[in-house]
Amino acid sequence: MGNNEACKTVLAADDSAVALALLSRLLNGAGYRVVTASDGIDAVQQAYRELPDLIILDITMPRMNGYQVCRLLKRDPAVSHIPVIILTGADSRGTEFWSLRTGADAFMFKSAESGELLVAVEKLLAQPFSGFGPVAGFLPAPASPLGPEEILSNVCALMDEELYASTIERIELKTIQQNLRDGVLTLNLGREVTGANQALCDMLGKDELDLLVRPCATALGEPAGTSILAAFEAALSGSEGVEQETEIRHRSGQMTHVAVSAVPLRDYLGATVGGVCLVHDITRRKEIETLVEQMRALDKAKNDLTHMIVHDLRTPLTSLITGLQTLEPSPCLVGVEHEILNISIAGGNTLLGMINDLLDVSKMEDGSMTLEISRVVIPELVEEAVRQVTGLAEEKQLTICAQIELEIAPLDADLDKLRRVVVNLIGNAIKFTPPAGTITISACLAPNERELVIRVCDTGEGIPREAFGRIFEKFGQVQTRRAGKTMSTGLGLTFCKLVVEAHGGRIWVESEPGQGST
C-alpha cells in the first residue's frame, strides 16, 4: 500500500494468540492498522466500535464462531458493507462452501502464502462500496457497540429465523411430494429407504414408517425391489434417464404396472449421498398397448382374409375373360350381342385390373413385393405407356402429346412397375378429361440434375386443393363440382405413390378447379 494513502483499518479475530500475532505483524508491515479480537462476541463489538475497512475471521472461536459473526454482520446495513475474509486452518470438507454461504467475500486457508493474503486484502479494499439496503425485520444498528447479551440475542433470533425458513421449505417440499400422482422413493448409499411419498405407499398398501430404514428389495418386495435397485445402480454409474418397467405388488396382492427411473441425490458439494427414484403408474399405457396389439392382429386378419378372397377371385375371373374373348371373333354375334360381349370383356378387364392393383398394394404395404431393377430408357417407357392407352384416348377423341428430353440418361428402376405407374396416371387423366381434350406427358431432369420429373397434365375439371392428399389414400374419392360425379381414384394412385416412394422418389398433384390437373 502506498505511503500517501490513508491508513486502512483491519479487524483480525482469532482465538489463537500466536495466529493473531503473526497476522498483525504481516498486516502492520504492509501499512495497515490492525485491531484484534480473541472471540466471536469481541469481534462483533470491535466491528461496531471501530467500523474497520476489512475483517478477517477465524472459524472456530469461543462464544461465537466465525460463521455466526459473519452472518450477523452481513445482516446489519450499518456494517454489512465491510468486506469479510474467513481465514481458517480447518481443512475439513465444506468449510469453503459454508464460509461463502454466510456472506463472506473471500475464503483462504492459513497455510496459504502471506503474499496471497495481502493480495486478497488489497483487492477487496480496492472494490467500490455499493452499500446494502435495510433488511426487513432487522433492527437498525445502535449508536454504541452491542453488549454480549444483545449479540447473543440477535444470533439466536437469526438462527430462529433461518430455522423457520428452513422448516417452511421442508414443509413445502413434503407437501409437493405427497401430492404428486407419481411415486417418489429416496434411497441412501446403503440401498435403504429414506423416504416414500403417499402415492408410492398407496401402490404398496403400506405406511411410510413400514418402509423407512429397510433395504429396498425387502421394503418393496419383488419384482419392484430388483427393478428399482437396477435403476438406482444405473443412476449411480452415470446412466441417468434409464427407465425400468416392472410391477409393484400391493399388500392385497394386486399388481400395478409401473415405469421406474432414478437420478443421483447429491449434497451441497456435489458428492453422491443417495438417489431419488420416480415410480410412474403405466397401467393405462399398458391397456392401450394391449388394445393396439389386438387391433393390429384384427387388422392383419382382415387383410389376410381380403388378400385370400381377392387372390382366389383372380383365377376364375381370368378364365371368364378368356372364354369371352374366344367368342369375340365369332360370326354368330352381330349387333347388340357383339356390343354386349365387348362391354362384358371391358368390365371383366377393369375388375381384373382392380384386383391386381389391390394385390400389388397389399404386397407393397407389407414389404413382400421387391423391385426388379434394370436399366430403363425413359422415351421408350413413355412410348410403351402411351401405346397401352391409345385406344381409350381415341374413344373420347383425346389428343396425347409427349415431350421427352432425348438426352435423359437411362434410369435404374423396375421397368414393369414404373410403366404401370405412367399408364395409371395417363389412364386417370383420360378418365377425367372431357372429349376433345388434351393430355401431355413430359419428362425432364429437375434443376438439381439428381431427379427425373415425369408430368402427366390434363385439361379436365381439376381437383380441389383440400383433396390433394386424399387422392393418394387407399380407396380415396373426391367429389367434383359437377353434381353427382365422383372422382374415384380407387387404388391406382395409391399404387403409384407406393411404387414411386419405393424408388426413393415422391409424387404430388398440382391443380386448380376448372384448369386441369398435373
- Number of separate helices: 14
Query: What portion of residues is helical?
Result: 40-55%
* Integer-rounded radius of gyration: 44 Å
Shape: elongated
Distance between the termini: 87 Å
Structural class category: alpha/beta
Number of strands: 17
Main β-sheet description: 5 strands, parallel
Low-confidence stretches: 1-5, 130-143, 481-489
- As laid out across the biggest beta sheet, the strand order is 2-1-3-4-5
Q: Would you tell me the overall average pLDDT?
A: 80
Strand content: 15-25%
Q: Topology, please?
A:
Layout: E1 9-13, H1 17-29, E2 33-37, H2 40-50, E3 54-57, H3 66-74, E4 84-88, H4 95-101, E5 106-109, H5 114-126, H6 148-178, E6 183-188, E7 193-196, H7 198-204, H8 216-220, H9 224-236, E8 243-249, E9 255-266, E10 272-281, H10 283-327, H11 336-366, E11 373-376, H12 378-395, E12 399-404, E13 411-414, H13 415-431, E14 438-445, E15 452-457, E16 476-479, E17 486-490, H14 492-502
Parallel strand pairs: 1-2, 1-3, 3-4, 4-5, 12-14
Antiparallel strand pairs: 6-7, 6-10, 8-9, 9-10, 11-13, 14-15, 16-17
Note down, in words, how this protein is organized:
By secondary structure, the protein is α/β, with parallel strands linked by helices. Helix 2 (40-50) runs parallel beside helix 3 (66-74) and helix 12 (378-395) packs parallel to helix 13. The chain contains 14 helices and 17 strands. It has a five-stranded parallel β-sheet with strand order 2-1-3-4-5, sandwiched between helices. It has a five-stranded antiparallel β-sheet with strand order 7-6-10-9-8, with helices on both faces. Strands 12-14-15 form a three-stranded mixed β-sheet, covered by helices on one side. Strand 3 (54-57), helix 3 and strand 4 (84-88) form a beta-alpha-beta unit. It has helices spanning 17-29, 40-50, 66-74, 95-101, 114-126, 148-178, 198-204, 216-220, 224-236, 283-327, 336-366, 378-395, 415-431, 492-502, and strands at 9-13, 33-37, 54-57, 84-88, 106-109, 183-188, 193-196, 243-249, 255-266, 272-281, 373-376, 399-404, 411-414, 438-445, 452-457, 476-479, 486-490.
